[in-house]
Design brief:
Elements lengths: L1 E7 L3 H14 L5 E7 L6 H7 L4 E5 L5 H10 L5 E4 L4 E2 L4 H11 L6 E9 L9 E2 L11 H10 L5 E2 L7 E4 H6 L13 H11 L3 E12 L15 H19 L17
Parallel strand pairs: 1-2, 1-4, 2-3, 6-7, 6-10
Antiparallel strand pairs: 4-9, 5-10, 6-9, 8-10
């Protein structure tokens, strides 16, 4: 079985849609853990709405993306987990497909599997599928997305992983030390994590027989609300990139296949 971990930061309406889509499209009863990273009162109505089907971990203070992810992983009860951002929408039968991968990995524990995404605008360095089903919740066409998503499924893997959503084992997450909590913002820390995985010889692949919808940075610099200044997020992105260079000795960047390995001096 699989556990789902969703970090959430002051974005209850996208979290609501994310959970709604997860619960409506799953075939099994899965463990779902949402980490509320501060400002709990903003999401209290979501907690109350889903508390019988979802476990909520509430951080009274905003601890940051890395803390939230690590806290979520530490508290799951299954060995394999899926990390999904709150501005993602789940496709139908996602759990059946992912549990199939888990069964096939019994002798291949060094895999980290990323999952394709559909985004409303492009182009993207991540080689996502571009199809506009709405650039925000008010515009989103859930039923159309579900129908289209099934038409692009294919049994294929790409070597352009290293991105969210992704699935891996808790044991391997611990081996890598989780996400680095020293980063000054939520940006670039995922590149740091996947670089550690590459250096540790993990197989980083992307599956194309499943696609999540992604509104695109609605949890950070492209928010719909007025809770945060977008300029602050861009500033945080710059600081995170500077920290990455300080730590690794080169700037964070990707080639066309989203691999970091080729840029290691």
């Amino acid at each position: 079985m699989i556990s789902v971990i969703i970090p959430s930061y002051k974005n209850p309406k996208y979290l609501d849609l994310c959970l709604k889509s997860l619960l409506e499209t799953q075939k099994n009863v899965n463990e779902v853990v949402v980490v509320i990273d501060g400002f709990v009162e903003l999401s209290q109505h979501i907690i109350d709405k889903y508390k019988d089907r979802v476990s909520f971990l509430e951080l009274e203070e905003n601890m940051g993306f890395s803390h939230a992810l690590n806290y979520g992983v530490y508290n799951i009860t299954n060995e394999y987990f899926l990390i999904v951002n709150e501005d993602n929408v789940f496709p139908e039968e996602w759990d059946v497909i992912l549990n199939g991968y888990i069964e096939s990995w019994k002798d291949k524990s060094d895999y980290i599997l990323s999952i394709n995404q559909i985004e409303p605008t492009g182009p993207s360095i991540y080689n996502f599928t571009i199809k506009d089903f709405g650039q925000n919740i008010e515009q989103f066409r859930f039923e159309e997305f579900k129908v289209f998503e099934k038409t692009i499924r294919k049994k294929d893997f790409g070597h352009d992983g290293s991105l969210f959503p992704f699935i891996m084992s808790k044991k391997n997450y611990m081996k890598l030390g989780g996400f680095d909590v020293s980063y000054p913002s939520a940006f670039v820390v995922d590149w740091d994590f996947f670089l550690k995985a590459e250096l540790s010889n993990f197989n980083l692949v992307k599956a194309y027989d499943l696609s999540f919808y992604h509104f695109g940075s609605k949890s950070t610099k492209k928010r719909d609300d007025n809770f945060d200044n977008p300029a602050d997020f861009y500033s945080g992105e710059t600081k995170a990139a500077e920290y990455f260079e300080y730590k690794w000795g080169f700037q964070p960047r990707r080639d066309k296949n989203n691999r970091c390995k080729q840029f290691i001096p």
